[in-house]
Amino acid sequence: MMPFGVLWHGRGRALLASLAVLLLFQPASAQTRFTYSKGESVSPAYEGWMPNEDGSFTMYFGYMNSNWLEEFDVPIGPDNNIEPGGPDQGQSTHFYPRRNPFLFTIRVPADFGNKELIWTLTTHGRTERVYAALKSDYAINKQVISLEVGGDGGNTRDEFRDNIPPDLNVEGDKRRSVRVGEPLTLVAFAGDPDNLPARRDGKPQPGVRVRPTEGRPSAPGPARPRANLADTGNRPPSSTVPSSGPGLRLSWIVYRGKAAATVTFSPEQMKTWTDSRVYANSPWSPPYIIPEPPPEGRWVVQATFQEPGTYVLRAIASDGSVFTDENVTVSVTR
After folding, report:
1. Domains of the chain: total
2. Which of 27, 144, 247, 293 could form a cystine bridge with 140, CB 3.0-4.6 A?
3. pLDDT surpasses 90 at 211
4. Backbone angles phi, psi at 328, to 5 degrees
5. pTM to 2 decimal places
6. Within 10 A of 271 (CB to CB), how many other CB atoms are there?
7. Do residues 193 and 168 make contact, with C-beta atoms less than 8 angstroms apart?
8. Is 206's pLDDT higher than 90?
9. What is the pLDDT of residue 210?
10. Which CATH number goes with the domain that contains 319?
11. Is 56 in the same domain as 176?
């Protein structure tokens, strides 16, 4: 007969091993977060609405591409439509990876009431819909927008309620023609009227105008907990978002038309989608360094197309919290 001590020791080791396995694998299964390079779908997003002075309302839309690498082109039609009033209501047809918030807006009349806009998007055979309505819990302001995009590192200063979006002017015609392989020069001027949020290094930004109510441009202030937003009457961020460094920046993207491997920009453009990987050429990417704006806020970029077709290029100027965009339609021939 095996001695009790030996028997307990053997069973004890087996029990401890079993417990170790449970402790090792059970929390892991509950906390696992999968990421995908490709194969997942795109979900349309309704970001919220703001009232306009004339009584109308502006609805904000974006999307979430669950892939880190795969991009999509979904033409306007059964697989990409906004109704009623569509199918084309200015939505994007090229979809970059990951989160692309507040990408376009739709203005609805003052008597929109309890109606809804429905954006339907199908990718990889999976259909997703988002329903946009003027419900009170989707009322937003510029401070909420800043928080949703991680502006100024998630700062909640009340100044962001009145943040003035960047000035933006794209030189030349809004419709251009170019041949395949021939560089198209794009010149855009951008400025930050209120210097809010200011660059961390204190260096000047183009286009600053003095705020009459303050008598001087804004400067960075101390961050406050996000919970302080609870008494503003507007919803807090819908989820934890990556932080974005402050400072004026401008990037060109392909808003409509095939972009992957068919359109290149020189110099390479800082990403406008939330790529939070280290050194990913993104405002949301550590170490959150925003390049200094060019002299006089004049950005010069060349776009080259490898395939014929009609493209919509979009310039996006951002101060890190709010943004302004302008489109150029390009007809590319052989």
Report:
1. 2
2. 144
3. no
4. -130, 125
5. 0.82
6. 19
7. no
8. yes
9. 53
10. 2.60.40.10
11. no
